[in-house]
Amino acid sequence: MGGLSSAISIKDNNPNIEVVIHEKYKTIGYNHEGRRCGEAHSVEHEWEKWKPTGKSIFNAILHADVIIGKHHYFADRPPGVGFILNRQEFICELARDAEKRGVQIQTNDKIQSIADLDGDVLVDASGCPSMVKRELNLDLGFIGRTYQETLENANCFMCDTIRIIFSRFGGYFWVFPRRPEKNEVNVGVGMFGDFGYDLREMLQAFKQEQRITGTVNYMVGGLIPLGLQRPFLYRNILFVGDAGVGAFPFSGQGIYRALMSGEIAGRCIAQNNIQKYPRIIRKEFTQWDMMGWLFIRMNLVFRKINPVLFYYSLNFFARGGKDLHLLSH
Q: Does the pLDDT of residue 245 top 70, yes or no?
């Protein structure tokens, strides 16, 4: 999504630039990487441009139920702001928008090395871990892990509500409503870091504890970049999405960050001023990430002292004012 938003932004700001997207799969969107953990999406203020429509929406979200120990924090969402995406269809919608603007999408075109690319400017939207950063041996930021199952005929389906339940182990669980016609939900677990836990076992225990039932029809998991993943620019390469701005450290939400970073990268490229890209990224994202980084660092320390302190710090953040807005993302 970061690569597609970059392409759209370039063409919107300078239609004369030739833009080529390299897609390693035979079809864009409808491949297994189009089904990833992230399907919750908010479109407020500066990222309202990327509002999904039609078949790209599974459910409109009006409520968030955040559970920290014995405490519940409820947040209502205004209509037309929060969604559970049909992520594959949303990606295809972006691809159609890009092609209408004259972007060339080359499918079945896996890039083995940046030496295969001859563009004046390159945008790396290859995800986590970034293919380019691995090749260039560039440092990566803080990384977490996720595991998710999709359940049909789930007994916990609530079409307009997402649930986030924080774990005493230093992570969180989620229950997101997916396809209404099948009472389908995404149930997953994310960890702040890699502590050697078996996430599948953790999720099974959570489902049993919450008495969640349903038929598993899909499983997915992997790495999640938590927070900014410096560098944002290396020579003529701009890093967007998971390769550059990562996901919000506190909640793991990354879709709007991918779309926003791509739009910013596109503007900088169209204006022939890629050097300002890192400065804009820091301005847009650093304040958000400071709270998330503080939360993660505190809990890495608390885990070593006493896991019970994890809940105290969560409640501290949950009473801090901006928390419910952030958590509901």
A: yes
